[in-house]
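Re: weekly structure request thread

Next one in the queue (254 aa):
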Amino acid sequence: MAGHSKWANIKHRKAREDAKRSKAFTKHTREITVAAREGGGDPNMNARLSLAIQNAKAVNLPKDNIERAIKKGTGELNDGSGNFEEVTYEGYGPGGIAYFIEATSDNLNRTVGEFRYLFNKNGGNLGTDGSVAYLFTQKGSIKVSSENLDEEEFMLAAIDAGADDVEIEEDFFEIFTPREELINVRKKLEEQGFTIEAAELIQIPMTEVSPEPEIAEKNLKLMELFDDHDDVSNVFTNLKLDDETLQLLESKNG
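Done, posted below.
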């Protein structure tokens, strides 16, 4: 999972920088709305909604925004905007790197057109449903700040809570869980006093591709373009960033 984690580390730092931007608020608001529409507006009875609210609070989404998003999802509030639909897109970036993109959109024709444009302009192509999905497996991901935590003690606590694996990053731990155990593991970690920064379902590549630095750089650019798109919830690829490639890219962009 090393390649995933290096991209996750880049995304995590970026997410912190972007936490106060409306883009981040938009994505969390949409997730709350979709979760409430699918499972009802009571977070005690809707695990997905509960998770969405907790993640929204972690980036300081105002309480009023959360309540409005829930009411929109349950149909209690009609603000005149369209209904959001969840959709996934698959494709290939430069060098044949596989992309699995999760999005929410109120205009699927617009979204697919914009995604196709981003792929084509940056040396990739939009694929058909199922063209890359088989290359990924879904897992739970929980991020916990590593500040003031003992690495070995935390890893033991995480495994005891039901984690499959733990990655050690620069300033946080990422815990991987079976998809169906995400909520339970998060709850157990919170009960032990750990502060959860984010918890979500992610797509992990079953095999990774380590391209030349030039191809890696082109893919990082494309990944950021997708990540910045308001309709995009998550971008997953099978790009592997080894330490040598990262050092070359960092020295080039330094």
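Strands lie at 85-92, 98-105, 125-126, 136-145, 165-168, 172-178, 196-205, 232-237. The chain has a mean pLDDT of 87.
Next request, please.
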